């Protein structure tokens, strides 16, 4: 993408606050296409719907994204550096339960084949991401797990 995607300063919420913050954000985004709702702290957001790999229930989360050099959305399963991957990531990574996932980005809705990045692709993307959003380095330092990066294409493959 080439342009600076640094966002505004924000306070990282406590792990136990993240689910309720996310639920309120999802509820708000489902009612509006207003730009101010879809951009928080200078970060664009999308809604992601997965199917629970164990429950079979639909789950939605609001996630900030960053665009890679090709302009493709990247979401980060950081959970603010928490010790475990967020539930949405486990669901998304289970291709039996979620061969595709539903996303909404303000006025665009689509079923997409989300891709968990690996190898050199992961490293290149991580290195570019943290130039704009260095707090992810701090999140990574808090946890022993490698924070996953997920490519969210514009349309289903």
For this entry, what is the oligomeric state of its chains?
single chain
Radius of gyration: 15 Å
The H-level CATH homologous superfamily, spelled out, is Electron Transport, Fmn-binding Protein, Chain A
- Secondary-structure class: alpha+beta
Proper CATH architecture:
Roll
Shape: globular
Query: What fold name stands as the CATH topology?
Result: Pnp Oxidase, Chain A
Spans of at least 5 consecutive residues with low confidence: none
What does this 3D model show about the protein?
The chain has a single domain (15-152), classed as Roll (Pnp Oxidase, Chain A). The chain has 157 residues and is α+β, with helices and mostly antiparallel strands. The strands form 2 sheets. Strands 1, 2, 3, 6 and 7 form a 5-stranded antiparallel sheet that branches. The protein has a 4-stranded antiparallel sheet with strand order 4-5-9-8, covered by helices on one side. The protein has helices at residues 18-29, 35-38, 87-93, 119-132, 135-142, and strands spanning 39-40, 43-51, 58-64, 66-67, 73-76, 101-105, 108-112, 115-116, 149-152.
Label this structure with key terms:
157 residues, Pnp Oxidase, Chain A, 25% strand, globular
Please specify the SSE layout and strand pairing.
Elements: H1 18-29, H2 35-38, E1 39-40, E2 43-51, E3 58-64, E4 66-67, E5 73-76, H3 87-93, E6 101-105, E7 108-112, E8 115-116, H4 119-132, H5 135-142, E9 149-152
């Amino acid at each position: 993408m080439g342009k600076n995607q640094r966002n505004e300063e924000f306070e990282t919420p406590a792990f136990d606050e993240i689910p309720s913050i996310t639920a309120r954000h999802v509820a708000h985004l489902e009612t509006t296409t207003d730009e101010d709702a879809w951009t928080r702290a200078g970060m664009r957001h999308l809604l992601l719907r997965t199917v629970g790999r164990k429950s079979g229930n639909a789950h939605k989360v609001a996630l900030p994204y960053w665009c890679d050099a090709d302009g493709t959305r990247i979401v980060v399963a950081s959970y603010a550096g928490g010790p475990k991957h967020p539930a949405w990531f486990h669901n998304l990574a289970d291709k039996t339960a979620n061969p595709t996932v539903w996303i909404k980005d303000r006025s665009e809705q689509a079923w997409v084949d989300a891709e968990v990045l690996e190898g050199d692709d992961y490293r290149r993307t991580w290195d570019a991401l943290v130039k704009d959003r260095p707090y992810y380095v701090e999140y990574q330092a808090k946890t022993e797990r490698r924070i996953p990066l997920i490519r969210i294409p514009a349309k289903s493959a």
